[in-house]
Amino acid sequence: MATRYSDRVVIVTGGTLGIGRACVETFAEAGAHVVFCSHVADHGDALAADVTAAGPGLADFVVCDVSDADALTAFVAGTGERLGRLDCVINNAGWHPPHRPIDEFSNADFESLWRLNVVSVFAASRAALPYLRKSRGNIINIASLVATIGQHYATTYCATKGAVVSFTRALAIDEAPCGVRVNAVSPGNVDTPLWQEAVSASATPDRTWADGLAAQPMARMASAHEVARACLYLAAEATFTTGTDHIVSGGAELGYGRKVRD
């Protein structure tokens, strides 16, 4: 594991919690120098110090709000300039709004989510490509299973993640002649702080949690590190894989299920 991605430079957006944090830890364990960001400073420096101390890779933290495209471009390009290369960019930062019908989302709500979940992926990829073309590196975009199967009361979120998958496939075509691979990872239910927030906000937390577990034939959620290991596989081993949507769902999309709600 320690030499699986050694001497590579990796950027992870939204890297202090959940899947992003797991990617920081997993890629550093594989020997990479990981530079990660979050829009708040909480936990960032401490995580970087812990990851670096554990080795064999390194971790640096930078405060950056990815919904500010100019700031994100400066962060990505600055990292490439400072370290002299980029090998992998993991566009992970994003948000799932509370579930509600379309009537309760405003245009401004959708525009704000679009900047965070989609424009950030475009901006980071665009800024990284001059470096990735030199290293023949790769981009991994964190999408979602619901980009493909839909989700109740989640029109804005599903639309943004569907855009991420489509962007991934189109960019993969454009960059293949340059040796740059572009893939998406679409998790299903993952036990993350965001999922825990949804449970806490529910009127029936125990039922919400039980429904989350029951959505998978495997009867559990993924861990964030299981998703991170899929990302590491795409970056380090899947050298003939580009333009894919790699689903990590525990089989949630399989089989018939009850569709009519009480």
Notes on the protein architecture:
The chain has 262 residues and is α/β, with parallel strands linked by helices. The chain folds into 2 domains: 9-187 and 225-246, NAD(P)-binding Rossmann-like Domain (Rossmann fold, 3-Layer(aba) Sandwich); 194-221, no CATH class. It contains 9 helices and 7 strands. The chain has helices at 18-29, 44-54, 69-83, 107-135, 146-149, 155-175, 193-201, 205-214, 224-236, and strands spanning 9-13, 33-38, 58-63, 88-91, 138-142, 181-187, 245-248. The chain has a 7-stranded parallel beta sheet, with helices on both faces. Strand 1, helix 1 (18-29) and strand 2 form a beta-alpha-beta unit. Helix 1 runs parallel beside helix 2 (44-54) and helix 7 crosses helix 8. The protein is globular. The mean pLDDT is 96.
Main beta sheet: 7 strands, parallel
* Arithmetic mean pLDDT: 96
The CATH homologous superfamily of the largest domain is termed: NAD(P)-binding Rossmann-like Domain
Task: Assign the CATH topology of the largest domain.
Answer: Rossmann fold
Q: Extract low-pLDDT stretches.
A: none
- What's the number of structural domains? 2
Mass-distribution shape: globular
For the record, give the distance between the C-alpha atoms at the N and C termini, rounded to a whole number: 48 Å
Strand tally, please? Answer: 7
Give the C-level CATH assignment of the largest domain: Alpha Beta
| Oligomer category | single chain
Task: For the largest sheet, list the strands in their spatial order.
Answer: 3-2-1-4-5-6-7
Order of helices and strands: EHEHEHEHEHHEHHHE
Counting H and I runs of at least 4 residues, what is the number of helices?
Answer: 9
